[in-house]
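Give me the fold.
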Amino acid sequence: MLVACASVLQVAESLFPHPVPGVRLGLANIVTLVALVRSGARTALAVAALRTLVAALATGTFLGPTFVLSFGGGVTSALGMALAYRLLPLSCIGISVAGSVGHVGAQVALVYLLFVRSPGVLWLWPWLVLSAVLTGVLTGLVAMQALRRLETAALPAAPGRPAAEDRTANPCPGGSAIHRLDPAVKIVAVFVLGMAVILFDRPLLYLAVFAALAAAALAARLPAGRLLSDLARLLPLLAASLLLPVLFTTWGRILVSVGPLRVTEDGLRSGGVFAARIGLLFFATAILALTTPPAGIADGLGRLLRPLGHVGLDPGRVARTLALAWAWLPVFRQRVRGALRVDRGRRGWLDRTLHLPGDVLADLYLLAESEWRSTRESA
């Protein structure tokens, strides 16, 4: 339930425009912080890791560049908040800032190591840390408001269970061989292709991967309009991956020189490689998302994680959590919309801005807790 609570906030935030890659409020981290205070570090870490999986299934970005950055940043943020909560005498705001800075640090490191190996990425670090401090303060205030309400609020009545038929539907149904392929095989294929384009920068390899993906998309009869509309959400990241090497690579043969700006052949080549790398990763994950229902991806992921049972991870629990959180997403989303409609016009915009996010979060948390207790009692 907490994973569903955090996932619906992450999905909602993904719908907002993000002109600057890496800068966002981090609404889902509020749930991680509330879970840390009320349920402990282990629950907070599980929520942070699994909500990125559910949100990626909901938005069709599983195993893509945004998923890698979100997963790495979310887990690092949860670890940072857990350490700050245990070792330092900080308020919720201080803990939230620690998590927000850790989130940005992990994302910058992942972008540099995996996608855009340009010094321009590192030059963005001070500005991203400043934005992380500001957003950490805001999310800390919301978390404080939610925790204050949770101390006195009563559990709401749990709603009826969601119908299952709408939760497993394929976003792009079809009867092709790509659709019928085992989800675990498709996940492994996307992972292998992703590692290939990350580890190597050979143009011929990229062309071969693009040809294979294009053939798979044609075989699955995927609509080009759907792929292009999904690609539009990735344009800021693609633009940044292209421009940063162009702006910060000053060596090599100069192609264009305008004042202090120099566009070199090496910089243009590096930018093209980095943009192609992210575009190919998106293409592969889009095919996976459009040919596999989320329940199938969760099941395939659970089977692939089965060997980790020897080191203490319960893959069955992970798969069940993903499936249940996915099933509850519409219920939580509807609850958020209902809270916004009820609150509209009842108080001023300033009061609503300061208190509504915490109230909505507390309501979602109470709903999760109510359903959890109801399930335990029935069991």
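Residues 2-165+313-378 form one domain.
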